[in-house]
Amino acid sequence: GLYNTSYQLLMIPITQLRDPLNAVGIPAMSSLDFKGDRYRGYYKQYVFLLAFFSMPIVVFLAICAKPIILLVLGQNWIGASLIFQLLAIVAFIQPAASTRGMVLISSGQSRRYLYWGVINAVLVIIAFFIGINWDINGLIIAYAIVNYAILIPSLIFCFHNTSVRLNDFLAEVSSPAIFSLIGGAVTYLVYQQLPDWHSLLVLAICFPIFVATYLLPWIIMPVTRHRLLKVKELTQTILQSIKNRKRK
Length: 248
What we know:
Elements: H1 2-30, H2 37-63, H3 65-72, H4 81-97, H5 99-106, H6 110-131, H7 135-149, H8 151-159, H9 166-193, H10 199-220, H11 222-247
């Protein structure tokens, strides 16, 4: 119950972000030549936008797991805090990594997609069998280890025969990942100093601090400042595409 509730609570914001993006991204990429530069460029923009929003969300949820669970679920579920934080380790990279399936689907490589699904399932099951020897926390840690261990090989496998390369993925997610962790480190230090206040007050203090420390490196560094402006443009374009699809 603790595992299931923690997983569902963690996935709510990620699902709300990822599903609309996939609804637009997969058809758009399917209409492009998967060996062409336009396909590669669209993928890079897509995975960057997904990482830009999903990674900081997961980091903030992990740091403020206790007040979030107290606020949403109540005192009886406080035992889910550690499980929630461990699951966040996987969720940090999972939305961006899941785009490998999007590449396979949009490039028409259904057989390779099936192979990847089988390989992934077998490795995760093995990790579960190993990790369960250390109870639920061990299971989640094993799940996290296998996800990060197979990340690079799986991306190489799934990007094969397309214009997308491993370096494209790494380049697009690196800044969101680093800046999310910086914002998380600052917020954690502040969070540790706060008294035992009401959860809503704790979140009201920590959230703006995290947002500010996450966005500050994007703003002050010339190499990333233009990317921040691009986020606004891409978000508006995708939101308009989602509206157009709903009208149809």
